[in-house]
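User: I'm preparing a small set of examples for a lab meeting where we compare how different chains pack in three dimensions. I only have the primary sequence for this one, and I'd like the structure in token form so I can line it up with the others. Please keep the answer compact; I'll paste it straight into my notes.
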Amino acid sequence: MDQFRVTRMNSLAVFSAWLFIFWLVLSGMPVNAWAKKKQQNSGALLNAFPILMYDSDIGFGFGGKGVLKNYFQQRESFDLTLFASSKGEQWYAFQFSLPDYELRQGSAYRLAWDLKVEWDKLLKSNYFGIGNDTRDNEYQFPREFFKIEQTLGHAFSPTWIVEGVIRFTHYSVYDYELNWGTISPEIPGAQENSVSLLGVNLRYDSRDSQIHPHRGMRLMLSAGQALPPLGSDWNFTAYRMEWSTYREILPGHIVALRWWMQQVKGVAPYQELSKIGDSWTARGYKADRFLDKAMTLASLEYRFPLYKTLGGVVFTDAGRVMEKIQKLTMNNWHTNWGWGLRYYLTNFVVRFDMGISREGSRIFFNFGHVF
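Assistant: Understood. Below is the structure token output for the 371-residue chain.
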């Protein structure tokens, strides 16, 4: 990346960080104060946050996010996000949880239900091919998906949880030009297609919070099977192991570590493959930068307080993709480092990150810790 583009990205990062802080001062704190007052009066809690941001993958964005918790006094929660951006993304997401995932954290419960509905359309999505050594490119095309997912969970103890998952996802890819040479007609998922998947999760979770953990450990083992009898166009199996640990070394100063491995067996659309690159994996690379059937990823974060509910973070990510886990080596890992800001509301975390890699700088705005 030439010096002009690096300088421009760094300037955008500084501008976005100040915009992030300014927006928190103007709009986040009064809402949070109202939420605390409502919680004292009725036990209900509301956090709402207006979105005005810049992201390397989607451009300038605007919208809003709100979480309403325990309004009906059943320990339930409603989570709604409405978002649009200058690069043509439209993202609408809704989640209902009973009981709320934070309220049930650290307790044994008979049954929990989570319903997620999401629609995302991006006019400028990326595809770079399959493999760990694919080349960067500037080809972009429209892509959208619709997803509905239900999870039923049972906690045998405050730390051991088992969950059953059923998910339906429909993918659409438009106006991709085959002469670009990265997608061929044989690449699975280069058209409209659907995935219906049944899965199971086994989780050990001793964290003191799901929203902003200070201490504890989380280990999740997952397996999912796409089933044509349920309407899936594909028949594949996906396995995942994710481990993370958190330690508070000083009041408010937290070291967090994550290790993630994943394997897809069978024929799956490229949207369901393991990936490195985006705001949830390696933050110094474009979204979906590296794709293959298997991946491994490690992340380290140091989270620290700045002022009241505003915090900072420095991080590093490293990972790679491969055809199968058995071919994992320590060569050709994709690494990045970066810094970010966190704004801590009662019901969720607002996140701003800048990741820096050998392919340049990326700016991300999202909700929730990366892990």
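A couple of notes for your slides: Residues 78 and 286 are 31 Å apart (CA to CA). The first strand starts at residue 45 and ends at 55.

User: Perfect, thanks.
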